[in-house]
Design brief:
It is built from five helices and four strands; from the N terminus they run ααββααββα. The protein is α+β, with helices and mostly antiparallel strands.
């Protein structure tokens, strides 16, 4: 058996020290995709409901992810089932068109976009974007469209997402 002598160990240590920086230069894994958490959705709906109560509106609220899968739903007492269906159509419209429902309505009227099956042209369905990426949609229904949108925007402000 041969023992390692200092003259054999030194080149080995040098080779190992030169290999370490090469490993450190490996690209880091990509950052996780931007997303909306359940906690954020609850806080946003809480704030939107405060706005609705303050103004005497009875609304249903829906927040979905970027694939239009529901994350959080709340229907205030006394809101008809039809308003739930409209809230669902608003998130579908926003996610599918890539626009707020008011923007979709304007584009449809201008003839710059094709109609989307099941879409609505009522205000109150807004896209949620983080770092320029669509992470979901937030809608309200039960009042006038601009009032629905006002409640949604109040909720978005709490989670620091601009309309």
């Amino acid at each position: 058996m041969r023992l390692l002598t200092p003259s054999l160990v030194a080149p080995l240590l040098l080779a190992l020290s030169l290999a370490a920086p090469a490993q450190a230069q490996q690209p880091s894994p990509p950052a996780p995709a931007a997303r909306l958490t359940l906690d954020e959705a609850k806080r946003a709906v809480d704030a939107a409901e405060v706005e609705a109560v303050k103004n005497g509106w009875k609304l249903v609220f829906l927040i979905t992810d970027a694939q239009n899968t529901p994350i959080y739903l709340r229907r205030m007492d006394g809101v008809p089932t039809r308003n739930y269906e409209i809230a669902v159509a608003k998130t579908l419209t926003s996610i599918t068109s890539g626009m707020h429902t008011a923007g979709y309505a304007a584009a449809l009227k201008a003839g710059t976009i094709q109609p989307i099956e099941g879409a609505v042209t009522y205000d109150g369905g807004l896209l949620l974007r983080r770092d320029g990426q669509v992470i979901g949609a937030f809608s309200a229904s039960g009042a006038r469209g601009v009032e629905d949108a006002q409640a949604v925007k109040a909720g978005m402000a709490v989670i620091r997402i601009a309309p």
